[in-house]
């Protein structure tokens, strides 16, 4: 199932070995992932804070960031969502409102670890949160895969879509064609770049 993900979900999938990490890995493996361009900067900042607080060692943080940079996802620009983000200002931060607006336009659930955001007044999107039963089930499945010698890899972009120069020149990012800001969000489609 496709979904919009926020930065804590990406960080949990890349760096958390617990229940939330297993849940986040399952979310990313289930279908297409959509997020605002902001998500990678936010995720990098979370990893930085974890490393500075010594809750994650430097090598693990660097590895997690590298995994996130090659994750196959559609990153969307801010401009088409600015009006809805502004409408949500009484109940959510602009950062969180951008995730909500993307989920509303794409009619996808927003996978998040932020229960406060899911309870906020204003968002019209569906939320996907880890439930303790789901998280425990994901951990058990991960342990079974590990015992069998298989680790669920994060979805990766094709090698030819990783070059920053190619991405800038063709408006592609991680193997997906990003729409021009002047195009209406309803016209967006998942397409593989040539």
Considering the chains and any ligands shown, give keywords for the structure.
two-stranded antiparallel sheet; alpha/beta; Rossmann fold; single chain; disordered C terminus; about 190 residues; about 10% strand; globular; 7 strands
Q: Tell me the β content.
A: 5-15%
Contiguous helical run count:
9
CATH architecture classification name:
3-Layer(aba) Sandwich
Main sheet makeup: 5 strands, parallel
CATH C-level: Alpha Beta
Radius of gyration: 17 Å
Please give the number of β-strands.
7
Output the CATH homologous superfamily: 5'-nuclease
What would your notes on this structure say?
The chain is of the alpha/beta class and 194 residues long. It has one domain: 5'-nuclease (Rossmann fold, 3-Layer(aba) Sandwich), CATH 3.40.50. Helix content is 49%, strand content 9%. It has nine helices and seven strands; from the N terminus they run E-H-H-E-H-H-E-H-H-E-H-E-H-H-E-E. The chain has helices at 7-15, 19-30, 38-52, 58-69, 82-87, 94-106, 115-119, 132-147, 164-170; strands spanning 3-5, 33-36, 74-76, 110-111, 127-128, 172-173, 176-177. Strand 6 and strand 7 form a beta hairpin.
Short description:
The protein is of the alpha/beta class and about 190 residues long. It is built from 9 helices and 7 strands; from the N terminus they run βααβααβααβαβααββ. The two termini are about 25 Å apart.
């Amino acid at each position: 199932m496709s979904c919009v993900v926020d930065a804590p979900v990406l960080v949990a999938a890349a760096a958390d070995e617990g229940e939330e990490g297993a849940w986040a890995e399952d979310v990313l493996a289930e279908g297409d992932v959509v997020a605002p361009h902001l998500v990678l900067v936010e995720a990098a900042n979370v990893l930085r804070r974890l490393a500075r607080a010594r809750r994650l060692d430097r090598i693990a943080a660097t590895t997690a960031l590298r995994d996130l940079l090659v994750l196959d996802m559609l990153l969307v620009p801010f401009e088409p969502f600015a009006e809805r983000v502004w409408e949500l200002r009484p109940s959510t931060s602009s950062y969180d409102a951008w995730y909500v607006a993307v989920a509303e336009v794409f009619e996808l659930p927003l996978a998040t670890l932020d229960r406060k955001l899911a309870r906020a007044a204003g968002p019209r999107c569906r939320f996907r949160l880890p439930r303790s039963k789901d998280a425990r089930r994901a951990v058990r499945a991960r342990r079974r895969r590990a015992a069998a010698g298989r680790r669920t890899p994060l979805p990766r972009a094709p090698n030819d879509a990783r070059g920053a120069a190619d991405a800038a020149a063709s408006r592609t990012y991680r193997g997906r064609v990003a729409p021009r800001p002047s195009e209406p969000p309803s016209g967006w489609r998942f397409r593989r770049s040539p």
